[in-house]
Design a protein that fits this description.
heterodimer, A: alpha/beta, Rossmann fold, six-stranded mixed beta sheet, four-stranded antiparallel beta sheet, globular, B: mainly alpha, two-stranded antiparallel sheet, two-stranded antiparallel ribbon, 14 helices, binds adenosine-5'-triphosphate, binds magnesium ion
Chain lengths: 249, 374
């Protein structure tokens, strides 16, 4: 198939209607390969809903969503989309509480996802090395054999980011990674994401303006389900309509 | 637990105990003279054999409930179907020795004026075919049921309710005479199994031994599944189903595999149960039976396999005692037991034991309870 677009992610005129309520309203957005983008917007703007559409959790009422120019995201299920290379971090950290930190990463490491293949699975050296490397990167090396339920909130957030990396996705969707973190953790997280974005596309939703400033990337402002403004943080902060939306209520 | 092999210490002890009982109890029945302290009575052997079948059934329930979060209230259906497949073989073994002396048709068919054997009874005169059906019939039903339920993402209470509806519907169907399974009387009056008299002490002993082996093998199979990476994914599905999907796993397939294996194990348990109790009737499909199975697992300790088997033994021993001593009180006792376990022992007997032993060793902090079924 001829790619319709060169963009890695291409959303065109996406609308999502819940019982007559428009959570997304003709939203259009493109993300390029290895681009990092910050998405901001007031509560209920539709940021999480947009991620739901991209990852197959919610089907749009109208519009087109393409990945790598050829995959129609509106027809695939969550597992297919994840296998294409789209990883997602949830707004509230979701890790597998009863599994160890190591096993959480093991389940995420890119590998055969079929049920039968995993019955015969044996621990391989390269998988172990990959997990070592990830543990190092998310600073959980000492917690390797602890249950994920015993981690602090910030550690869980990082574990989930580690699980994202383990999947080796081409596109990462990260929903409010700094929520509930200390200032130091927030700064560290921004640095980690910037580092990741050197090789992969990253879309970050965040309310914390200091965090968005640290990221230092192009910003998209969502409001009532559509794009209100796009540009550098300074540009959008100076935009009158953005000021109105954020301060006018 | 970081052990790589499929058997931990607890599992090893369990297997050894089950197999030792499988050998020693029949021997104690056959060799020790009556009156000797080592003698096990003729009454006790099939009774304990029945418990072993229930234990295997409980292990099957635990595989899907404890590890995959699928609370089945319909496993009695798979158990009964396995039992019927075995019952059909045993009926055909009767041959011309029935009351009506018909060489082909079982008594109830003669009584109901059947002219020939219904097509679905063909082949059941061969043990191998019947044994295959013990696996295939529950397996196929489970596969078809799970295919629709898991793909349509029916979960939680709704799934439990439709499993209950499934076994209820089967019960109603099997109660009908024109289904061709003996109606409410079911299948009984068995004579032989594989040419051996079904009431002979040696046959009883062999059936007991077979039940012990089946329990050990079923346990090992489940243990192999849950200790593999497949099993880790199952637990992930249990605790955070949608997260597992976003990692790229086809959750429906994972559930379907465990569900089908579990149904087949339940079928095997039913098939071993029927020759030991001497009858299978539609009452085995009763919804209350399936609920009782879940209570066994909860009492023993969900998500441990060994606990499930232990729970089946303990609760059924209690049931036997109660139905002898205080028959009216049994259901109340069972209900009270369930409430006590849910409130005070969320991890069952196994969990309680673990807490006690670790408290004796060192004053440990609280152990997190597993999440309740969704
Ligand atoms: N499944 C649903 N059914 C009905 N309404 C929904 C559903 N999901 C989201 N909504 C509504 O859609 C709107 C957009 O929600 P969304 O979660 O996308 O906002 P958000 O931008 O992520 O907000 P926040 O910053 O609070 O996370 C909200 O008004 C929400 O109530
Ligand atoms: Mg949100």
């Amino acid at each position: 198939m001829e790619p319709v677009t060169q963009s890695l992610l291409y959303l065109d005129d996406i609308s999502v209607v819940f019982d007559g309520f428009r959570a997304l309203n003709k939203l259009s957005l493109t993300i390029e390969e290895a681009e990092m983008r910050a998405i901001i917007g007031p509560n209920g703007a539709g940021k999480t809903t947009m991620m739901d559409v991209i990852t197959g959790k919610t089907r749009p009422t109208a519009g087109e969503a393409l990945f790598a120019g050829i995959y129609d995201l509106t027809t695939l299920d969550e597992a297919d989309i994840a296998q294409l290379g789209i990883g997602r971090k949830f707004q509230t950290p979701t890790v597998f509480d009863m599994h160890t930190v190591e096993d959480n990463l093991l389940l995420a490491v890119k590998a055969d996802r079929r049920a039968f293949a995993n019955i015969y699975w044996r621990r391989r050296a390269h998988e172990r090395a990959r997990i070592d490397e990830l543990l190092e990167r998310i600073r959980l090396k000492d917690q390797r054999f602890r249950k994920a339920s015993e981690l602090s909130h910030g550690q869980k957030q990082w574990l989930e980011i580690g699980m994202l990396l383990a999947q080796e996705p081409r596109l990462l969707l990260v929903d409010e990674p700094a929520a509930g973190m200390t200032d130091q953790e927030t700064a560290d997280t921004a640095e980690l994401l910037r580092d990741i974005a050197k090789t992969r596309a990253v879309v970050v939703v965040e309310h914390d303006m200091q965090f968005v400033r640290d990221l230092d990337v192009k910003v998209t402002v969502l409001h009532e389900g559509s794009v209100l403004a796009e540009g550098s943080l300074d540009q959008v902060s100076a935009n009158e309509r953005v000021i109105e939306v954020y301060l006018g209520r | 637990m970081r052990s790589l092999g499929i058997l931990d210490r607890r599992g090893l002890i369990f297997i050894v105990l089950v197999l030792a009982a499988g050998v020693l109890i029949p021997l104690a029945n056959l060799l020790a003279p009556a009156g000797s302290p080592f003698h096990v009575s003729d009454y006790l052997v099939p009774l304990l054999g029945k418990y072993l079948c229930y234990a295997l059934l409980a292990v099957a329930v635990d595989l899907v409930w404890g590890y995959c979060g699928v609370l089945s209230l319909g496993h009695g259906a798979f158990f009964a179907l396995g039992g019927y497949a075995m019952g059909m073989y045993l009926m055909r073994q009767i041959g011309p020795r029935g009351v009506y002396g018909n060489p082909v048709l079982p008594d109830f068919m003669v009584f109901l004026n059947y002219k020939e054997l219904p097509w679905f009874w063909l082949g059941f005169d061969h043990f191998a075919f019947a044994a295959l059906m013990v696996l295939v019939v529950p397996g196929l039903l489970a596969f078809a049921f799970g295919w629709f339920a898991f793909r349509s993402r029916v979960t939680g209470v709704y799934l439990s309710i439709i499993t209950q509806a499934m076994t209820f519907a089967l019960m109603l169907a099997f109660f009908r005479n024109d289904m061709g399974f003996g109606g409410n009387n079911g299948l009984t009056d068995f004579k032989d199994i594989l040419g051996f008299s079904i009431t002979a002490g040696t046959t009883r002993g062999a059936l007991f031994f077979a039940s012990a082996v089946a329990l050990a093998a079923g346990y090992l199979l489940c243990r192999a599944l849950v200790t593999s990476k497949y099993g880790k994914v199952l637990v992930a599905v249990r605790d955070a189903e949608s997260r597992t999907r976003f990692l790229g796993y086809k959750v429906a397939n994972y559930k379907l595999l465990a569900w089908t294996v579990s149904a087949m194990l339940a079928g095997v348990a039913g098939a071993l149960y029927v020759p030991q109790v001497g009858i299978i009737n539609p009452g085995e499909f009763a919804p209350a039976n399936s609920i009782e199975m879940v209570i066994w697992v909860a009492v023993g300790g969900r998500g441990t396999l060994v606990g499930a088997a232990l729970g089946a033994l303990v609760v059924n021993a209690g049931k036997t005692w109660f139905t002898g001593a205080l028959p009216e009180a049994w259901l109340f006792a069972l209900g009270a037991l369930f409430v006590v376990v849910t409130l005070f022992m969320p991890r069952g007997i196994i969990g309680l034991w673990g807490d006690l032993t670790s408290r004796l060793r060192k004053p440990a902090g609280p152990v997190p309870a597993p999440k309740p079924a969704e």
